[in-house]
Amino acid sequence: MADTLAGLAGQLEARVKALRGGGDDAALLAAARDAADQIGRRRGALDADAREARGMIQRMTFNAAADCWPGWGVSDKPIDPNHLLAARDLAERSLDLVQELELGPARLGTGAWLVGAFDLALGRYDEAIDIFRGARRNYLAASAPGLVLLTDGYVAIARQLAGDRTSSDDQGFDQVCERIAAGGFEHGDEWIAQLRTALEVFARQVNS
Questions:
Q1: Phi and psi of 95, rounded to 5°?
Q2: Is residue 28 within 8 Å of residue 19, measured between CB atoms?
Q3: Helix (H, G, I), strand (E, B), or coil: what is residue 69?
Q4: N or C, which terminus of the chain has less Cβ within 10 Å?
Q5: pLDDT digit string (tens) for 39-88?
Q6: Considering Cα of 152, then 154, then 158, then 160, what sign does the dihedral take?
């Protein structure tokens, strides 16, 4: 039995880590949800121990949810909507903790992006666009121009999959990729590849 809340969170996080990469999304999500529930039931004053514990749960719920997002790679494995909904719930819980712990606009942007990414996977394009735009505002506040453009790419994907070809303030997919390539960002090539992969994955889903 752990003596502190952070100690308990560490034990729970270790169990979740052991399931990551194992290919069993249901088990991973259930373990992460249980860990978050256990720490959540012990909520109290945000002292150093509680803050450390909640920080672990924030990281763990984000990573577990992100592991289950199907947009990372093209696969023949069918996408299970129930797993997407469960993972989205974890992503929301992670985002709530980012806000509670006041981890800053960059972390808020990334937390919001993941929630939007699951809406994208679920075909909720309008909801995804709204959340991505919120993430973009946080990246602007964090002075992270590369992540602003990356998020613009996800807005463009959602608009394209929704069949939105009307003019707007949003940029087109190819235009965003060109701006990332021209920006000289350290991870620019990876971001472009990530965007192209996500577009392929979810376009297949729409056309299947």
A1: -60, -40
A2: yes
A3: coil
A4: N
A5: 888 766 668 888 899 999 999 999 999 999 999 998 888 888 999 999 99
A6: positive
Q: Which of 182, 177, 140, 184 is nearest to 156 (CA)?
A: 177
Tell me how long the chain is.
208
> Exposure of 77 by Cβ count < 10 A (0-12 exposed, 13-18 middle, 19+ buried)?
exposed
How far is the CA of 48 from the CAs of 2, 10, 89, 175, in angstroms? 16, 15, 26, 46
Look at residue 207 and give its three-state secondary structure: helix
Question: Residue-wise over 162-198: b if at least 16 C-beta within 10 A, else e?
Answer: eeeeeeeebbebeebbebbeeeebeebeebbebbeeb
> Residue 87: how many CA atoms within 13 Å on its side-chain side?
29
Please tell me the distance from the alpha carbon of residue 199 to that of residue 195, in angstroms, as a whole number: 6
| 5-31 per-position pLDDT tens digit | 888 888 989 999 999 988 889 999 999
Token code pair at residue 197: 């992969």
